[in-house]
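During the practical work, I worked with a single protein chain and the tokens that describe its fold, as given directly below.
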Amino acid sequence: MSRTRKVDQPEVCKLVRVLGESVKPGEHVTLDMQVAKLYTRTSVEIPVVVHRAKLDGPSVLIMAAVHGDEVCGIEIVRRILVELQHRPLQHGTLIAIPVLNVFGFLAMQRELPDGRDLNRYFPGSAKGSLASRLAHMLVREVLPAADVVIDLHAGGAQRMNYPQLRYTKGDERALELARMFDPPVILRSNTIAGSLRHYMFSNNKPYLIYESGASKQFDDHTIQEGTRGVTRVLEGLNMLGGPKDAPRGAAELMRSKWVRANYSGLLEITIPNGAYVSKGIILCHINDPYGTSLHHVRAPFDGRILCVNTSPVVNQGDALFHIGRE
């Protein structure tokens, strides 16, 4: 653990406790979350960075790489931490976990070494699988200190997500924060059992999931939108001072659907990611390698493209486009 402390702190009543450590007003603390060791006896430590202002306020947790190969979120958290060096918090506490799934990050893979998806094992168990133990540690030792959670994700399996913020129906506080974030798209979607969003919703804590970009690659648009959005939330909660940019107004979509391939072949996309489409418009062509066009994929309804499959080759049944409806 590394710790820096500022002097002349005012008395504050709120207790901020992360990984068993009390963080005092004006402190910047880096703690290590230890869950397991590698088979080489090497300890794997997950750094948790905590910035606390001198004045009390809300606590916000931003984290990335729940899936180890989703690197855009890591860069967004890094940029936020760099910004705090020049623009310190005025109120409240920021908890940052740039890389939660360190195990997957080291191997540049989505899952943990046991092949499990961490985001299907919340709230976890102290005596369960590696995924379950890591989920349990986060739930017991970090989440109680957070009033709001912003979770940064990306598309997987060669899918490129258009910048979007997802919230759960009935979580009005999350919707309010999503509008504060001001992404291009806000999507209301259902929770999945075992996911962190499902756990947070069940415990009445506002949770936002930012989905943008693709795994294993940086995307400038994704990173800029995510950094801007997180900064806007911190400003909106009066944690950061200074000038605020004007909101643009997000497109709010109530439901979405995947369009899948009915044929296997070479994928030729004709519609850009994020575009509005009308029912019947051609979204892509699926061709064979021998000069024959096999199939045209058309939009099944009016909507907005939220994700595009970037693979050059697709199989029958593969997800091609995620389309949201207003």
Q: What stands out?
A: Residues 255-325 form a domain with the OB fold (Dihydrolipoamide Acetyltransferase, E2P) fold (CATH 2.40.50.100). The first strand starts at residue 2 and ends at 5.
